[in-house]
Write a structure and sequence with these properties.
- The complex is a heterotrimer of chains A (about 300), B (about 400) and C (about 375).
- By secondary structure, chain A is mainly β.
- Chain A is built from three helices and 19 strands.
- Chain A has two domains: about 130 residues, no CATH class; about 130 residues, no CATH class.
- Chain B is globular and about 55 Å long.
- Chain B has two domains: about 130 residues, Thiolase/Chalcone synthase (Peroxisomal Thiolase, Chain A, domain 1, 3-Layer(aba) Sandwich), CATH 3.40.47.10; about 220 residues, 3-Layer(aba) Sandwich (Peroxisomal Thiolase, Chain A, domain 1), CATH 3.40.47.
- The longest helix of chain B is centred in the N-terminal third of the chain and has 15 residues.
- With about 400 residues, chain B is of the alpha/beta class.
- Chain C is α/β, with parallel strands linked by helices.
- Chain C has a domain of about 130 residues: Thiolase/Chalcone synthase (Peroxisomal Thiolase, Chain A, domain 1).
- Helices cover about 35% and strands about 20% of the residues of chain C.
- In chain C, a hairpin with a 5-residue loop joins strand 9 and strand 10.
- In chain C, helix 4 packs across helix 13 and helix 11 crosses helix 12.
- The radius of gyration of chain C is 19 Å and the shape is globular.
- In chain C, about 70% of the residues are buried.
- The chains are: A mainly beta (about 300), B alpha/beta (about 400), C alpha/beta (about 375).
- Chains in contact: A-B, A-C, B-C.
- Chains A and B meet through strand 1, helix 1, strand 11, strand 15 and strand 16 of A and helix 1, helix 2, helix 4, helix 5 and strand 5 of B.
- Strand 15 of chain A pairs antiparallel with strand 5 of chain B.
Chain lengths: ~300, ~400, ~375
């Protein structure tokens, strides 16, 4: 189903890709107030006009979105309403005394020793602020008296920004088409695409079906490593994830023998030089990276101008 | 593609948007959504109980670290136990949300659908997260957001047509000026053509003043069927046609000059809405210009002028507030650019024009409005016609 | 103006595998898009719109549909990306055709969970301030949900394990699912990687795959298909965000979604002949069966076993959960089952119920009623 006549699935390892992004998240008033006070060992909850008390604090009622009315301070004790074990951690749902909701946290006890209905109390992590993990977890505390919800005098100003990071790793399968293409790049320094059903020019990158017609693509074809610029712009800004310092030229290049363009870059001494010398129609040649090829587009380090 | 849309059966009956800002540190994404929702419901004289279903739209989830955020903001909307779904389409997310909501009403799934769109761009790293749009195997490391290729296409257009950067600079001047009177815009900066041309190149030919701001903002509309529209307003903005079209990226013949998906969408929408001469018939136009050069492309792709003549159109003054086809009287993206919400903002600006209650610059006697929006690699594009 | 009736004309599904090592997303998508037309007499040219379901976080790519438009067959067509389970994409498609704006729609859903960390995918759906830092996610939610269910109803783990084993056998026989070795109840009970009291095999197993469903107006469907299956009702509903704050008595949003669908279909007290339902765990599946009205509270296991209604003949989501596509696979499976008997005299399956879900512990729910 997935292989064209002269394409076999190539036994390649997967392609590792990482998305690693920093963030600055705004928690909003209720959560921001909770996070501001948690370092003071105060657990802030929300009191709604309907009388409901929710902790940790929320701006909007989980049942129907009602707006929070005031903030309150809730006890450090409560009841374990449910729990499970995930890998080596015990995670449970706790309902703090005086509150109407349950919330999730870490349970500091062996799974086998627990029971639904057990009273629990917060265990604090020294020196942790601005995070729900200022509470290290909850441990069984059967003798503790039932605590009371108290008004929260003058709450600290809500934390406005919490730094955060998300790192996602991927192992992408090459598939038969990218597999062969990158194999040819690595082994022979040769860039291969596939012909379409209505022409000799190659689609690059190759795939089983033509993007426009959805018809099966045809046979493999080697493209040159020279080509023509179809579009270009001059990069002069800096951003996270950039691989070289500006200025440089962003170029969309159609290799000789191909029909579709690939994205790459051209060194530029200056913006003016690039404006004067690099334009749609300019001819370019691939400059391969020195040393062993790895089988990726980065085996071409950059392109440079050629005459004719 | 589809034949006709059943215009006249679905209307925008309430609108609301936040006062957009470079950075809102007083509300989370959920709080931002709530503001827009409260305003739209109030505007439509409705409460959440009157709403049958909700569509949430926002930019790519990597913009703000919460995956499938509709599942989080449902509490803020107060939509528990109602139908809620999220659609996304990059910059066109808001418009795609409106389209999905339109079909919920037109298809009989709902009598009233609330569409809320937002982005909180201050929370992430915009250029880097946009680069994750690209194929990880092929090109991601060389991509420069969407600025790199947008600038490349603009340059190719100029070369082919013999134009200069001045036409796009005029767009930037116009929209920045118009934004000043827009109470929801946050970038209010009057500039001259010379200042735009002299501003720092970011991805030349795109320069600093060709680029809209980065914003936190939300916007919401209430869509209603013919049956219940009158309960919200005496002057609904009827959707006479709405369409969204795409082009696959790996195309040898991808036009650098015209947006084919936009032209295709426009052809269908104009047929549904009875538009034969867009330049003459429309009273006002709202478009989503990720960079100033795009507005020129839209003039041609929407048929407001013949192909290749967008520079002449802007130079003639026709698209200014006092011209015969004012474009972006709200200031467009130059005033505020919470990317995922922009499609809804453009719809709100156009709807309030034909409803006679624009809070920016009311175009006198505006009855028929055109809206454009889109996203991706400029390969997801749509438009709509509104009338009152 | 009357609304058009919408039918499922055809469907196509790749084999569902723990890992499609020799295929990219576009290969799986292209395969089902080119296969779905076979035998219908329709082609991609006849398709007015494409609606696709996929996840940026699973795909490792923002606006991932943008890179897949060609494979989806969407070039120069109206395309929409629903970033939710594929049954919602089908819901959107049905609305478009009902409105009269279109007559033929292509719905596609796909994923390759093998390429990423699935736990991170679920965890990223929890808000980042209270739930994510403490490690709450899909496994924790399902474990606690199961603990509660077993305590409330006294359901025996062994009976659940027996049902899981049956689901796997059905998947191998009927579901086009790659399975190397069938687990028996003992293997289910002994499997690791669960969240107590659920064992690993009691949780839905993520798999790679793609599915396409072709929708059309009834007249077109009757021209192309011997047995078009009509969508007569749709409903959906979303619970509040945090699992900890949801009702303890059952899947309230699933009940609301079912009530909406049944009301729209005019079913009143009618019962379906077959049901294809999604689930995050075997206990979740029991709760869905109950929420759909197919069994009283606590008796989902009875309904799953007594054969009055054929439930999850495909095996359901437990052995094969192509996250983001699972509900659309259920739709395709149900339509196939009903289409296969539509023209027989006895044994005709007249009514089908389909369920899709999204989010941690099935926060979002979608229900379809089908009739021939």
């Amino acid at each position: 189903m997935l292989a064209a006549p002269d394409t076999q699935a190539i036994d390649l390892p997967t392609f590792h890709s990482v998305i690693d992004l920093p963030y600055t998240l705004t928690p909003g008033r209720a959560t921001g107030t909770f996070l501001a006070e948690i370092g003071n060992r105060k657990i802030v909850g929300s009191h709604f006009a309907s009388g409901k008390i929710i902790a940790p604090a929320e701006d909007f009622s989980p049942d129907d979105g009602e707006d929070v009315q005031t903030f309150v301070e809730v006890p450090h004790t409560g009841v374990l309403e449910g729990y499970t074990k995930v890998n080596n951690d015990v995670i449970g749902l706790i309902q703090l005394d005086g509150c109407d909701n349950e919330f999730a946290h870490i349970i500091l006890a062996d799974f086998e020793t627990l029971a639904v209905g057990t009273r629990v109390e917060a265990v604090w992590a020294d020196g942790v602020e601005n995070s729900i993990l200022a509470i290290k977890g909850f441990r069984p505390a059967p003798e503790t008296p039932i605590g009371k919800v108290l008004p929260l005098g003058k709450p600290a100003n809500p934390i406005e920004v919490i730094p955060y990071a998300m790192k996602l790793d991927y192992e992408h399968a090459y598939g038969p088409y990218y597999g062969r293409m990158f194999d040819e790049i690595r082994e022979f320094g040769r860039i291969m695409g596939v012909r379409t059903s209505n022409g000799d020019d190659a689609l690059l990158p190759p795939r089983e079906r033509d993007d426009i017609t959805h018809k099966r693509t045809g046979t493999w074809k080697a493209c040159e490593d020279t080509g023509t610029i179809r579009g270009c712009s001059i990069i002069n800004l800096e951003f996270i994830g950039q691989t070289r310092p500006p200025p440089y030229v962003y170029a969309e290049i159609v290799l000789d023998g191909a029909s579709t363009r690939l994205i790459h870059m051209i060194d530029a001494e200056s913006i003016q030089w690039a404006k004067d010398n690099v334009r749609p129609g300019s001819r370019v040649r691939a400059i391969w990276t020195k040393g062993e090829r790895t089988g990726s587009l980065r085996d071409i380090e950059r392109f440079e101008l050629i005459d004719g | 593609m589809s034949n006709i849309t059943h215009g006249g059966h679905v209307a925008i009956v309430g609108v609301g948007q936040t006062h957009h800002a470079r950075r809102r540190t007083d509300v989370s994404q959920a709080g931002l959504v709530r503001e827009a929702v409260d305003r739209a419901l109030a505007d439509a004289n409705l409460s959440m109980e009157d709403i049958d279903s909700i569509v949430v739209a926002s930019g790519p989830v990597l913009f703000a670290a919460v995956n499938q955020p509709e599942k989080w903001v449902v509490n803020a909307i107060g939509a528990q136990n109602k139908p809620v779904v999220r659609v996304t389409s990059g910059g066109g997310a808001g418009f795609a949300g409106a389209l999905a909501g339109y079909y919920q009403v037109a298809g009989g799934f709902a009598e009233r659908t609330l569409v809320v769109a937002y982005d909180k761009l201050s929370e992430g790293q915009l250029q880097y997260s946009i680069s994750t749009l690209y194929d990880p195997f092929w090109g991601r490391e060389f991509a420069v957001g969407i600025m790199g290729f947008s600038a490349a296409y603009w340059r190719a257009r100029m070369d082919a047509l013999g134009h200069t950067e001045e036409a796009a600079a005029m767009v930037a001047v116009k929209n920045r000026m118009n934004a000043i009177a827009n109470p929801y815009a946050h970038m209010k900066k009057e500039v001259t053509v010379e200042e735009v041309l002299a501003s720092k190149p970011l991805c030349w030919p795109i320069k600093l003043l060709d680029v809209p701001p980065i914003s936190d903002g939300a916007a919401a509309i209430v869509l209603a069927s013919e049956k219940v529209a009158a309960k919200s307003t005496t002057r609904p903005a009827w959707i006479q046609g709405i369409a969204y079209c795409c082009e696959a990226d790996n195309a040898p013949e991808r036009s650098l000059m015209l947006s084919e998906p936009l032209a295709i969408a426009a052809r269908h929408v104009y047929r549904a809405a009875g538009i034969t001469n867009p330049r003459r018939q429309f009273d006002v136009v709202e478009v989503q210009e990720p960079y100033s050069c795009f507005e020129l492309n839209y003039y041609e792709s929407l048929g407001l002028c013949p192909p290749g003549q967008a520079a002449d159109l802007i130079a003639s003054g026709a698209t200014q507030l006092d011209g015969d086809i004012p474009v972006n009287p709200s200031g467009g993206c130059m005033g505020a650019n919470p990317i995922g919400a922009v499609g809804i903002i453009r719809l709100i600006e156009a709807a309030t024009q034909v409803m006679g209650r624009s809070e920016s610059h009311q175009i006198k006697d505006a009855k028929l409005a055109l809206v454009q929006s889109g996203g991706g690699w400029a390969n997801l594009r749509g438009c709509a016609v509104l009338s009152a | 103006m009357g609304l058009s009736r919408v039918a499922i004309v055809a469907s196509a599904q790749t084999e569902l595998r723990t890992a499609w090592c020799d295929a990219q997303h576009i290969d799986l998508i292209s395969a089902v898009v080119s296969s779905v037309f076979k035998g219908t007499g329709l082609t991609l040219d006849d398709v007015d719109f494409v609606i696709d379901s996929g996840s940026d976080v699973l795909d490792g790519r923002s606006i991932s549909n943008c890179g897949f438009l060609g494979a989806l067959g969407a070039h120069h067509k109206e395309e929409a990306r629903v970033e939710e389970d594929g049954l919602w994409a089908a819901q959107y498609g049905v609305n478009k055709i009902r409105s009269g704006a279109s007559s033929v729609g292509l719905i596609v859903a796909y994923s390759k969970p093998s390429e990423s960390n699935v736990e991170a995918y679920w965890a990223s759906q929890c808000e980042p301030f209270y739930q994510r830092p403490v490690g709450f996610g899909q496994r924790a939610a399902n474990g606690i949900q199961a603990q509660r269910y077993l305590a409330d109803h006294g359901t025996r783990q062994r009976d659940l394990a027996d049902l899981v084993a049956r689901r796997w056998a059905d998947a191998a026989a009927n579901g086009n699912v790659e399975i190397d070795a069938l687990p028996d109840a003992d293997a289910v009970l002994a499997s690791g990687g669960g969240s107590a009291p659920l064992t690993g095999l009691m949780l839905a197993r993520p798999v790679d795959g793609a599915v396409a469903v072709l929708l059309a107006t009834e007249p077109i469907a009757r021209r192309t298909s011997r047995a078009p299956v009509i969508v007569t009702g749709m409903g959906s509903a979303m619970n509040g965000h945090a699992f900890a704050t949801r009702s303890k008595r059952g899947l309230v949003a699933c009940e609301a979604a079912a009530a909406m669908a049944l009301r729209n279909a005019g079913w009143d007290n009618a019962k379906p002949d077959i049901a294809e339902v999604s689930a995050s765990s075997i206990v979740g599946e029991m709760m869905v069966i109950e929420a759909l009205g197919l069994a009283p509270r606590g008796h989902g296991l009875d309904a799953a076993s007594d054969g009055n209604i054929s439930i999850n003949r495909s095996g359901g989501a437990l052995p094969a959960d192509p996250i983001m596509a699972t509900g659309l696979v259920r739709l395709a499976q149900a339509a196939n089952q009903m289409g296969a008997t539509a023209n027989s005299v006895g044994g005709r399956l007249n009514r089908g119920l389909v369920h899709g879900a999204g989010g941690v512990a099935m926060q979002n729910n979608c229900v379809f009623t089908l009739e021939v």
